[in-house]
Amino acid sequence: MNSFGILNSVQHYVGKIRTMRNEVRTQRFLNSLPADIRKDIGWPDMYEGRSRIREV
Fold first, then answer.
1. Could you give the CA distance from residue 24 to residue 32 in angstroms, rounded to a whole number?
2. Does 10 have pLDDT greater than 60?
3. Which residue has the higher pLDDT, 16 or 47?
4. Side-chain half-sphere CA neighbours of 47 within 13 A
5. Distance between CA 52 and CA 56 in Å, rounded?
6. Beta-carbon contacts of residue 31 (< 8 Å; ≥ 6 apart)
7. Source organism's superkingdom (predicted)?
8. For residues 38 and 44, is the Cβ–Cβ distance under 8 A?
9. Which of 4, 20, 28, 44 is the most buried (most CB within 10 A)?
10. Phi and psi torsions of 33, nearest 5°
11. What does the H/E/C string look like for 1-56?
């Protein structure tokens, strides 16, 4: 594997980590909202449905 292949692999890994951190940060923010606002936007019900679809 040449150096570009290794670099691409590292960039892909770092990108996944960044995405996971952003998702956790977003979940924390949404969970910190008042219950009535979370209900209005469909959190967490809408998100859980999306997660189940992605896993299947």
1. 12
2. yes
3. 16
4. 12
5. 6
6. 38, 43, 44
7. Bacteria
8. yes
9. 44
10. -70, 155
11. CCHHHHHHHHHHHHHHHHHHHHHHHHHHHHHHCCHHHHHHHCCCHHHHHHHHHHHC
